[in-house]
From TrEMBL:
Alphabetized Pfam families for the sequence: DUF6794
Name of protein: DUF6794 domain-containing protein
DUF6794 domain span: 7-83
InterPro entries xrefs: DUF6794
Top-rank taxon, per record: Bacteria
Source species of the chain: Monoglobus pectinilyticus
Amino acid sequence: MNLYSEIENIFPTLESLFSEKDLLKFKNTRIIDLYRYHFGLGTWIRNNLIYPKDSVLCDLFIENGIEQPDDMSSFIIKLFHYYVWNKI
């Protein structure tokens, strides 16, 4: 399994968490301001995708040298931002 492929597979799920208006707001957020999503979207990512004991995603992050859940969710948020920015 590939870390990026696993992350890319969750983008539709993350996208479904946003209204159209909020997704556009997320898209227009500057990269340096993505920290604002740490406690909302980031918490959802950590609770639903990283913390479960059987999390393949968490295992892949650890295999790639990223061990802190906050760093994992920040990485996902940045990649998701790039995905959204290029999609809409």
